[in-house]
């Protein structure tokens, strides 16, 4: 096959092997689990169509109702993905993007408490994303070193 000739290693794999956990990894895992639970709760409240949430989306923020359900699905799936190590990096980035949208929306509507909450969640999402990127880089470097030996 033409593609195999261009790759340096014929045993090329998409996923890297997980390295043993370091002492600090547990705190990031806990943060990811807490974010996952929070986004599951946020998402499900939108999907269930709680009256106060529906009013906030349609009357306060002037979004169409379908957008509330779209965000609810995204947050529910993102929340589930944050519990899975292999999906944590794209999930934390996706949830950070949703939080950026939430911050802009709450700034426009002047909801100070929600701005603070969304900003804290955004920062935590980015912390988890950065940690997972660093883990992945270490795993890939270890795999490359292993293949050289």
Secondary structure topology:
Layout: H1 2-6, H2 25-48, H3 51-60, H4 65-81, H5 88-109, H6 112-148
Task: Report on the architecture of this protein.
It contains 6 helices and no strands. The chain has 149 residues and is mainly alpha-helical. The chain has one domain (28-148). The model is unreliable at 1-5 (pLDDT under 50).
Oligomer: single chain
- Helix fraction, binned, reads over 70%
- Domains (count): 1
**Backbone CA Rg:** 19 Å
Mean pLDDT: 89
The class by helix and strand makeup works out as: mainly alpha
Shape, per Cα inertia axes: elongated
Low-confidence stretches: 1-5
Name the beta content range.
under 5%
Biggest sheet features: none
Please, how many helices? 6
N-C termini distance: 26 Å
Find the count of extended strands (DSSP E, 2+ residues): 0
Give the H and E element order.
HHHHHH
Which descriptors would you attach to this protein?
single chain, 149 residues, 0% strand, mainly alpha, 6 helices, elongated
Q: What's the short version?
A:
The protein has about 150 residues and is mainly α. Helices cover about 75% and strands about 0% of the residues.
